[in-house]
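Exercise 3.2. Students should predict the tertiary structure of the chain below and write it as structure tokens, then compare their answer with the key that follows.

Predict this chain's 3D structure.
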Amino acid sequence: MASVMVHTEDQLPRFLNVRQVADYLQLNEKKIYALVNEGKIPGTKITGKWMFPRELIDRWLLESSHGGMLADRLLISGSDDPLFNRIVMKLAGDMKSRTLVSYTATGTKLGLELLSRHRADVCAMHWGPASQSRTRHPALLAQFTQHNDWVLIRMCKRQQGLMIRKEMFHDEADIVPYTHADTRWAMRQEGAGSQRFLLDILQQHNIEMDSLKQSCMAYSERDAACKVVMNEADVALGAQGAATEAGLAFIPLGWEAFDLALYRGIYFRNLFQALLQELASEETQHMAKQLGGYDFEELGDMVWSA
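Answer key:
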């Protein structure tokens, strides 16, 4: 019978090679390489050689063994939303220094890439009209190897449309008057859900994206609203809540689904459940009515699971 090499914590170095981490986890080296290729185990490649920080390996084991319930962080990436930002900041304030709760607006696709690399715990996402979200969103997740380990939870539906300087506002629910050559647009980066929504709307009107006059680039909903407020642009696509927050005129163009993609284990974290409770609270619903353009009827629904 093959013997198992047992190391005490003092004997192990801070950084383990493939053989050492295989011994530590009582797995064969082939399995370690498979976990690396799937992006499931924390490691880094230095001069062609894989190394694994023992501290992160221990945290990864704890996360895997307990479904994340003992974890002391909730790192959120992906799409921007003013109401969601307020809720996350409130949760962070309530938790104080006991936990790390953060929200970095990166856009949908980059947020999913960060999730796939375990750089984030949750990705907020939207990708087109709400009516197509239960097919489009899972299809987008399927582009990532790790998607079979993810679930998709519905946060809300929100009204998407044009955020406009009030002096430029035309009293008609149509994008066409704002596609003329003299109208300045704040565009979103590639991979942003708002850019995807704008492309869909333009295609419905047989308008080419390149025909719009781009005056600047915005990297979040609130950044786009700020660009319009600061007169760097006349119009940008964004959520009604972002327009209300910035004091801009708003033309609704349709509803979209705003979902949360996350690993199954993250779903059972106390922190994530606390986030869902905050989203369902009366205070949140009151803020949603103030900002406008939110529908929380499907909050907490599991939209997709492999």
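Discussion points: Residues 132 and 285 are 25 Å apart (CA to CA). The domain at 67-306 is CATH 3.40.190.290 (D-Maltodextrin-Binding Protein; domain 2).
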